[in-house]
Amino acid sequence: MDVCEGDVEISVPGARDGAAEGAGDDVFYNPTQELNRDVTVAALDAYAEREPRASTYLDAMAASGIRGVRAAAAGFDVTCADVDPEAVALARENLERNGLDGAAVERDANAFLHDSETVFDVVDLDPFGTPIPFADAAFANARSLVCVTATDTAPLCGAHQRSGIRTYTTLPQNTEYHPEMGLRVLLSALIRTAARYDTAAVPILSHVTRHYARTYLQLDARATSADDLLADLGYVHHCEDCLRRTHERDLIAHPPDACDACGGDRLLTAGPIYLGPIADPAFARSVREYVTDGMGEAARARRLLDTVAAELDTPTHYDQHRLCKQWSRPAVGMDEFVDSLRDAGFSATRAHYSGTAFKTDATVTEIRDATGE
Ligand SMILES: C[S@@+](CC[C@H](N)C(=O)[O-])C[C@H]1O[C@@H](n2cnc3c(N)ncnc32)[C@H](O)[C@@H]1O
């Protein structure tokens, strides 16, 4: 089967309807990740503008090679690697088919990254499930940017809590802001991993959908920068009764005995999670400029990047419908809702996690009062 994405056309083995990720014929090409790949190509273009010396790109888990082929078409010096020989042959064929230079190699990502003969400016980790088994090798060896996809959303967001604790060595909690919980758990683990190599892995763009979290981490190889970033790790204390959260930047958690808004004692503490900005707004705006009309998910990518660029960088978002249910109130349009918070003097924006998600510096009690009749 031939597939067109962006400026390239590749061949992939026929997809089987309903096959689980990584289990069926869609092992080599997952159409639901097209938005992820469109944003990747735009992010690579924007990154090349920001860091003109960044020219080599490793698609460390290439499968069909679609991501690497698109990166090569964007001008990067690309290597597609995979442990599966069929994937490597397919990636090679797809580079050739598009008349693009680039290598396709049959290598385990960890071994390849640690190989002293190869070094890449940009390393892309796009495994099935968690990227954690590959994080050490990426941060120890990449020169400039590490791009990471994680598809194990249930462990990340606390729905499969024990698995999340094991994989990410942090405590996730299942809350109504689960996509953001998942992203901040992932970022916490990646930032702590990079810090072991005296490197700050600074998130310059991140986004989450139902299927995956994706982040772009710019590397700063100074121990003091790693220390500064670690200061953004901490805890969220979440009240299950009134939905109030408090955020605590500290290495040690100091959970309150009771919620200071409603006095309830059903409190959840998650962490250490990353509490800092998930994106650099200037970079997100620049990425948005590189989304082209030829991209299959251009409209969604532009909407997503506009929202991410404007999103308040405070953790953690609220969901209007969840709050309205809590307060037995009808929901209103999101623009009207966010405007009432601003009219009351608070900072407020939509958040990209869902159509009813928003961020504000108001507390849950202040939100209720500012948006009530
Ligand atoms: C989710 S697919 C990659 C999808 C692809 N990057 C894209 O954008 O369509 C994951 C790939 O990782 C490969 N893989 C699994 N373990 C690996 C390892 N240790 N080193 C390199 N590749 C690996 C699998 O063979 C599979 O092709």
UniProtKB/TrEMBL annotation:
> Which keywords describe this protein according to UniProt?
Metal-binding, Methyltransferase, RNA-binding, S-adenosyl-L-methionine, Transferase, tRNA processing, tRNA-binding, Zinc
Q: Where does S-adenosyl-L-methionine bind?
A: 37, 67, 82, 108-109
- Specify the domain of life of the species encoding this protein: Archaea
Mind listing the GO molecular function terms for this protein? metal ion binding; tRNA (guanine(26)-N2)-dimethyltransferase activity; tRNA binding
Q: Name one Pfam family in it.
A: TRM
Q: Which InterPro entries match?
A: SAM-dependent_MTases_sf, Trm1, TRM1_arc_bac, tRNA_met_Trm1_C
Q: Which residues bind Zn(2+)?
A: 239, 242, 259, 262
Q: What is its EC number?
A: 2.1.1.216
> Catalytic activity, per the record?
guanosine(26) in tRNA + 2 S-adenosyl-L-methionine = N(2)-dimethylguanosine(26) in tRNA + 2 S-adenosyl-L-homocysteine + 2 H(+)
Tell me which SUPFAM superfamilies the record gives: S-adenosyl-L-methionine-dependent methyltransferases
Q: Where is the signal peptide?
A: none
Q: Name one GO biological process term.
A: tRNA N2-guanine methylation
| Function according to Swiss-Prot or TrEMBL | Dimethylates a single guanine residue at position 26 of a number of tRNAs using S-adenosyl-L-methionine as donor of the methyl groups.
Family, per entry: Belongs to the class I-like SAM-binding methyltransferase superfamily. Trm1 family.
Quote the protein name from its UniProt record: tRNA (guanine(26)-N(2))-dimethyltransferase
Per the UniProt entry, what species is this protein from, by scientific name? Halobellus ruber
Q: Quick one: which gene encodes this?
A: trm1
